[in-house]
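input
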Amino acid sequence: MAIWMTHKALKAVRHRRMIYNKHKDSRHPACVKAAKYASYLIKQARQNFEELLAKKIKEDRKSFFAYARSKSKCNIRVGDLCNSQGQLISDAAEKAELLNNFFSSVFTRETVESIPSPDPCFTGSVNQRLCDINVDASVIAGKLHALRPDKSAGDDNLSPRLLRDLSTELATPVSLIFRRSLDTSCVPRDWRTAIVSPLYKKGCS
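output
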């Protein structure tokens, strides 16, 4: 059954089938009437569902694009990949590992021993220098509360819905972590990891 099908439209479809089974003639006036009424309700149900998706696209983009993808007639998938030994890889996990190794190989690895010193460009007075950053827990709480709950979890597997619902409770601990990171000039290891998702583009590889 279609996701947009309403109970009223489904009832009309069943009634149309029952009328046809009774008369066995699609040109019978009763069959024509039942078919027109069912088609009208189906069209109305689909239109109302699509309008509702369009109105709520800012709050729920995932449902909108899922419905749009379901209407797509083409389903393009990543084909077999060739590894360094010339072998074709068809397993999904092995293809993901192969892509991950490729992305890791093209990353730029900076050496901390040869970091150049920046040229001084600040022309203000000593009192105008930014010597410290104030970490406000209320600002962090506002940022957490503004997270979109329909987004997927990050590398830490924490759902944005959970972070948003616990924004008040998490604001102070997160502000302390930020403060500690600024004081020690050290970024937590978990903050330096990310999920890299390759986006397949249609065409030649």
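quick obs: Strands lie at 81-82, 88-89.
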